[in-house]
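Weekly structure sync - notes
Attendees: PM, LS, DV (DV joined late)
Agenda: review two folding runs queued last week.

Item 1: First target. Sequence and structure tokens pasted below for the record.
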Amino acid sequence: MNLMQMGDEARSASRQLAGSPTRQRNGFLLKLASNLINDQRTILTANQMDIRIARETGLTEALIDRLLITPERLNSMAGDVSAVAKLPDPVGKRFARQKMENGLLVEKMRVPLGVLAVIYESRPNVTIDVASLAVKSGNAVILRGGRETIHTNQALVNLVQQSLVENGLPGSCVQFINSPDRKCVMDLLGMADTIDMLIPRGGAALHQFCRENSRIPVITGGIGICHLFVDESADLDASIRLIHNAKTQRPSVCNALDTVLVHQAVAAELLPRMVRVLAKSGVTFRADPIAMAILQDSDAKVFPADDVDFDTEWLSLTLGVKVVEGFAEAIDHIATHSTGHSDGILTGNTDNADRFVRMVDSAAVYVNASTRFTDGSQLGLGAEVAISTQRLHARGPMALEELTIYKWVIRGQYHIRD
């Protein structure tokens, strides 16, 4: 593949996108949502090919779930695209306006970042999420998905490009590297002249590789070692229901729960009940010594936690369990083991809730809610291109506004500086 040509075409397309009216970009989104439903047979056939190859090559069921597209998931994807079309367009938004003493009018205006590159693994819905948000926010994008979903991604990108052309926009607004050759990734990381931002979505190894080798600014995130702390004032019945949801509703995603921290005052009452309920859904447990002692008579699969268990993003029906002395130990544990993605407290104490929110430095911090809500569509953003766990530019779900930057606009009456 000629990546340099792709970069040049993306840069040209980004200029056309930046000047396109909101109605044209929204028209693309509505057409894409319709095409996803009307052409679902093509997409599902391509996806089944990827699923068959994945099983033949021995991928785990957890990973296969991440790449699977069902009619229900396709309908959800189309719904998310339609939701993005209804969102306010951030491009051209003016803010921070002021009039200087000399009469100059100064303001900031939101503009697209330009050209994005997104490297991702497994989940083909990322193709549609990124394409819809990038085009709506006026950005061109080059996509590089994993080899395990190459047929699905190619079918989806073909549909995206068709929808772009049908709305008078260049198909090169969204391009796809359909070669599994890893050399393409290295070549992509060197394209600083045509790509403005790189977003890797995958495991820690991919993030580390991109940080070490990219000449393009990198935003990382999407690795979630997520915690919930049950303090001594929590409603235990409600906590068990919430923990069950955070762990089992979709265990293979980054905002699924990995570790429960339980205050020692309620551990003996909570843990046996919690384990009994979650075990019915197939959850196994890795427990610290105190929790092991409490659960020694349990019929569930409870194993002693080893040195790395509390630093593991499970992406499966495994849950870490630790009993803590109090609030301070819970905060210390999260500070040591969290990846800064999604962490929460279950409590009836307002002071504890407020302290937790102030002291836990994660992109999303929860009080009495499941970590599964760290998601663009769930937080009213339509979708997201990534969950950023960095401190620069954007944190948490990166949606429309997070894919823009601003320029200064200064208006005068032929002003000159004294």
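Item 2: Second target, run right after the first with the same settings.
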Amino acid sequence: MKRYILFFVLIILIAFPAFAQIDSTLLRRTEKDTSRIQMNMDAVYNRPFLTMGKLPVSVGGYVEANWQHLGTDGISEGHQFQMRRLTLFVASSIYKRIKFLTEIEFEDGTKEINIEFASVDMEFHPLLNLRGGIVMNPIGAFNQNHDGPKWEFIDRPVSATQMLPATWSNVGFGLYGKLYRGRWVYAYEAYLTNGFDDQIIRNVENKTFLPASKENPDRFEESFNGVPLITAKTAIRNRNVGELGLSYMGGVYNKFQEDGLKLDQKRRVHVFAVDFNSTLPFTKTWLNGEIAWVNVDVPETYSQQFGERQVGGFIDLVQPVLRKPIFGFEKSVINFAFRTEYVDWNKGTFRETGTSIQDDFVSIVPGISWRPTSQTVIRLNYRYNWQTDILGNQPSKTAGFQVGFSSYF
């Protein structure tokens, strides 16, 4: 416990000497606030909201739906129509420096219903703000900035959704803050929350799989082992260059004792991530990338198909090719988009032979998107995947087209 108290004391001591300004009226705007340099950590509030008169409550949300026709090694399920998700936002300015926001997501119709965010923010100082409730652990950039209408791709990045647990949130408390200095902005977030459980190595995927812990609904009411998960991120952004973020998430994932009886040693999971995004000044090309490393203390009794180390990431390139009125939409933009992504589910070697363990995933996704407005996107993607098994056999190949839309409302 002393270690966690010291962790927050150090954050407070670092935060107090600096001074900055934070716009406390953000939730009262009907459009996104562009008066400040926006960062990935601002994504939770950097959304369009609808207000009514002087009511203190604002509402909003977004919707995603698509059609796809994919095949793996010549075998296809044919034409598929999907209602990927419907997400609702409700925000309230409780007082001039106290605000609340919740994000509730319905996936695949109502197959999954999740509270992804439900926190009260209290602003004491621009570099010292308290957040408590269901918070979104800021590992990488996509976990913070995942809204469908912001992306030119129908599928979310595999490294962010299957290696890392995208939209990973837990109950807890923490601090965050930002410091503005001319064209530069510096930011941090630090949280203690409930964390992972042993499903990351005990799951139907039969491999080390961090998203499996999302299936545990009890994480919102109790910790699996009583040890807090630490998540911390620091980021820097320049108005002309872009944003660079460094983040860490780690803690004990197994139940090492029960009613005072020792069951096992403490087994930890550590995740490190680096993210970067920038817009090239002359061509307006948007570059966005993220890479993450996962380290898990897997018991020796488990087979080698459960990886102790994983690495993966993605790079997106979006190039506007046409800006002109189309069908009466005055601010229409047509973009060319390209994504490449890679995941190594098991970065290591076999004990018996010393040869590399494979289990790799590679994908390329070219696409075209039309934005009639900045808040709505219609997307055409072509997806091509290579998936290699643990033994390095001939990879299975998946390919096909996807067409869909996503829009705030």
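Discussion on item 2: Confidence is low (pLDDT under 50) at residues 4-35.
Action: LS to circulate a short write-up before next sync.
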